[in-house]
Amino acid sequence: MYYLSPVRSGRLLLLILALVVITIDYLRLHINGVKEGFILFFGSFLRRHEFSRLSGATYLLFGCFVTSLLYKKPIVIASCTFIIVGDTFAAVLGQNIKNPKLFKRKTVLGSVGFLASALIAAVILYNLPETLPLHHLIIGAVAASVFEALPLPWDDNFSVPIITGFIMSFL
């Protein structure tokens, strides 16, 4: 939706989605009936730590919203695409196939999956109108992969699009 929207409308949409998800997360964490219903329907998608803390979706939407405030639209689209696509593949591969740990919670296969899917996303984005040069997208995909893999103290769903956007804004 952000891609098809004017910048201000896209930012407003991201803000509204982030506020809705934050509200749902708050209710999920603090009201037992909501918590039980949420776990019943979405529990298999939650990571262990998300049962007692904000979900990755909340951090992701807030990170994409902040990214939209800081950078131009093509950078926002690329940065957010890399974390959405890359994190999905990293989770599927890293959690479902036994493989060596890269860092405490990251796996080699998960990081390779993130990089490969982010690079594929970069090629797809390059073929869209009003995008970045391919080498910028490739550098952004690699940067997103590196920062997602590092054991940084903050949630990667929030920080990766912001850091990736920062790096791509200097290219």
Offer a quick outline of the entry.
With 171 residues, this protein is mainly α. The protein is 72% helix and 0% strand.
Describe the fold and architecture.
- This protein has 171 residues and is mainly α.
- The protein has one domain.
- It is built from seven helices and no strands.
- It has helices at residues 7-30, 32-42, 56-70, 73-96, 108-126, 134-149, 156-169.
- The mean pLDDT is 90.
Structural class: mainly alpha
Distance between the termini: 26 Å
Largest sheet: none
Percent of residues in β-strands: under 5%
| H and E order | HHHHHHH
Low-confidence stretches: none
Q: Overall pLDDT, averaged?
A: 90
**What's the β-strand tally?**
0
The coarse overall form would be: globular
Percent of residues in helices comes to: over 70%
Number of structural units classed as domains: 1
| Rg over alpha carbons | 16 Å
Tally the helices: what do you get? Answer: 7
List keywords for this structure.
171 residues, 7 helices, mainly alpha
Give the helices and strands, then pairings.
Elements: H1 7-30, H2 32-42, H3 56-70, H4 73-96, H5 108-126, H6 134-149, H7 156-169
Helix pairs in contact: 1-2, 1-3, 3-4, 3-7, 4-5, 4-6, 4-7, 5-6, 6-7
